[in-house]
Write a structure and sequence with these properties.
The chain is α+β, with helices and mostly antiparallel strands and 263 residues long. The chain is built from eight helices and eight strands. The protein has a five-stranded mixed sheet, with helices on both faces. Strands 3-2-8 form a three-stranded antiparallel sheet, covered by helices on one side. It starts with a helix and ends in a 22-residue tail after the last strand.
Length: 263
Amino acid sequence: MAKSTKNVVSLDRLFAQAPAATDLWPPFEHVVDRARRRPPANPEGTAHSYAQWVYHLYNGQRPPGHAPDEEEESRVSMYLGRWGEAYVDRFRSWLNKRFPSSMSGGWRPLYLATKDNRNRIFRASRLLVHGQPLRCRPDVVLKHEHTNDIVVVEIKVTGVPLPKIPPQGWQNLRAQLWCYAWIDEWISAKNVLLVGQFWPRPQFRAGAPFTFLPIYPRWRRQNRDFERECSELFRLYGGTIADVGKVAPDSGSQGDAPQAARA
């Protein structure tokens, strides 16, 4: 029990200093207004397609150099497969440089989108499109061996200069991570923590993976405002959200967001 308590406290350091919602670009009101006027004609049932729809809501204002690249995604998978354990160690050190001891020991890779398994499909049965569970493909999932807490990481290779990246990232990043928070395999976890990670494109293409920009968009699944806004946007996409039960929020939430219990 002592290990579990220590870990929750240390993670609170990371999320207590999370950027304000106003540091997310563009503002939610801007995106949701466009979403009401531009619903998709035939929404696809994948988290990637949903995030792309969110992106296109503000595509005309998006900084250049941030669009996903299939070749780059393949290389990320190759790096994760070759140096997966090294990535986890680097990720922990990356967070601890700014938030001392926030990423304590005990974290183990639950899933890495390596070349061999990058086509694995996860399902989020709480999130439905055309009555079917949303299909998801996260990049990195870590699980704590003592607490069963989950950290989901979405990697973005970007050419956007550091000063132009919003502290809380872009709306499509948040939308995609929100989908991953509800994947069936960890839907009953008490703490699901979501982190966006940016790899600078010049260093990445030069063969220097695991070079991380010092920006840490991050959310808790338990945060009420986060859940409310993401749910609203998903419904405007044409999705529905199943009511499959609740569990208590953790100490880091700003209210009781719906929590699904595993069937």
